[in-house]
Amino acid sequence: MAAHIPDPGHDPRIEQLKSWVAGLGAAWSIDPASCAPASADASFRRYFRVRTGHPAHPTAIVMDAPPAHEDCRPFIHVAKLFGDAGVTVPTVLAQDLDQGFLLLADLGSQTYLSRLDAASARPLYGDAAAALVRIQLATRPGELPAYDRALLQRELDLFPEWYVARHLGITLDERQQADLREVFDAILANNLAQPQVYVHRDYHSRNLMVLPEGASVGANPGILDFQDAVIGPITYDAVSLWRDAYIEWDEEQQLDWLIRYWEQARKAGLPVAPDFGDFYRDYEWMGLQRHLKVLGIFARLYHRDGKDGYLANLPLVLKYTRNVAGRYSELRKLVRLLDAFEGTERPTGLTF
């Protein structure tokens, strides 16, 4: 989503940022006046592109992460973990943790989302799958927080709190609450039983960059927004990639890409389920957890944070949710809940 940048005269953070880059010295020779919005995300972080006098980095990105809301240390830590795994992440060129500023290598402005089409999808997703395998192979215990039951549950709880109650204006009765808890418990049981690897948590088309011409073979994609990485279910990032909230592919195409990833992961020795049918079920159930969370997050971004740009993506996320819930008997109660929210009836007459 494009950044909304206040007038510098009314934004002390921008003046603070410009003062910081100006003070980085002759090695960088950054022109503060060149500071221009690069992007913003769904948090308090903002990104600015600056021109420098450094021969290896004619432009660089400044991350503005206000210390009252954001902590740069996880970004720095995960950047090293993923960089050591052999994938392309923004190198941290300079830092000021007290002020909440990082100077980062510039990976360009071409997101996967801006470049994906029928012709480019196979090579781009092939690169993304290969990078994902490298990240997962680098997994070491104790380096990242666990994607444990408490965190997975907190994410699921965003769905009733923000999507159902706040966005739809619906109060669940006791039976509906019990049905939703039952569905959540089934989802969590699946998620927690999956093999555990490094998980980016937002490995999708807005956070993967098509590197500029001249990048070395195997360097694509540039990977951004990894500071919330955890150790968690092995299917999570694959779901983020191919059941993306921002771009839709038909299920046959998704399946082809997913099988290629699964075969590559198995060959590399990753602990994916040996039977693809079992792996696909894990992928679907992990996707359901993610999409229920995303429905809550997009609603919260609108109602709490005033960011309406994500509302247009709700129908696709809801479509993914319904498709999976409708395929498994254990999830039938979720279908009934969704029907009740929409005031529709199933042909079987199963409604509230």
TrEMBL record:
It comes from Cupriavidus agavae. The keyword Nucleotide-binding applies. This is Aminoglycoside phosphotransferase domain-containing protein. InterPro entries: Aminoglycoside_PTrfase, Kinase-like_dom_sf. GO terms for molecular function: ATP binding. It comes from the Bacteria. The keyword Mitochondrion does not apply. Keywords: ATP-binding, Nucleotide-binding. PANTHER family: N-ACETYLMURAMATE_N-ACETYLGLUCOSAMINE KINASE (PTHR33540:SF1), TRNA THREONYLCARBAMOYLADENOSINE BIOSYNTHESIS PROTEIN TSAE (PTHR33540). Residues 36-262 form the Aminoglycoside phosphotransferase domain. The lineage of its organism: Bacteria, Pseudomonadati, Pseudomonadota, Betaproteobacteria, Burkholderiales. Pfam families: APH.
